[in-house]
Fold this protein.
Amino acid sequence: MMKTVTEPLAGRVAILHLQGIALAEKQGHADDPPFLTDVPLLKSRQKTAKPMTLPEVYHKIWRGSYSDMVAQNNDNNWERFYSSYVATYIQRDVREYLNINDTAAFHTFMQIAAARTGQLINYADMARNVSVSEVTVKTCWHVHHASGIVYQLQLYFNNRTKWLIKTLKLYFMDTGLCTYLTGRLSADVLERGAMSRAMLETWVVSEIIKSYLHQGRTPHVFFYHNKEKQEVDLLIEESGTLYLIEIKKTASIQNIGFKGFGMLTTLNRLIGHGGLVCLTKTLAAITAGVDAIPVGYV
């Protein structure tokens, strides 16, 4: 649409980056503030968020967030919907508007990328798997990113100039599409498979990002990884404070082996209340500065 606009629209148009239906919309609290592990906000979530069982969580992950899938109660249309979506996305958007002629290679790239959701982006590795050049993979990636299919999470650094050039992490913004591309044809197969943890992480991260995008805000989200291979799944920067989030596929916070976020003290930044998003049924304190948060709160 922007290609056909002949008038300058600077200052006269607002652009909203809308994704699929968010969990908050499904639960009827879409007007709540964007997700944050701040204690007052978490307690307010207790009034509106609904606890979910393991099968319910993975059914939502498997179904995805596109409006047609959310509105339907018939899972039999799932494969037909996503196969048609991929076909029209490739044939129309990719071929006609984005000038990608090798649609077979692009489809293979989509499958390879989906299998790497929640992982660091490695163009060279994907190029070998797709049997194309690294330049072609980067072009396919930029198409995916520009069309909102994927989100690239930046590695956190105190030095802001490094954020644009350092390692990126790949997340699909619709887990139903990601599940279809990786061949998981049922929620049960998805939950028991090798990608179970990665898909839960992808779903939580995408829901948190949507909570900002759908209110017209830019999500200041990152991941953390240091030389000692200590990691934090998600960092949210809000008003000069870092809120830290780990995501785990567990319903029990007893003997979880969670070591906290002590490694972040080296950043010399104000660290807010942290959260461990998991399959627990209720909000509960793990340490003085970290709560176990039900996945339904995102």
Q: What stands out?
A: The longest strand covers residues 231-238. The chain has eleven helices and nine strands.
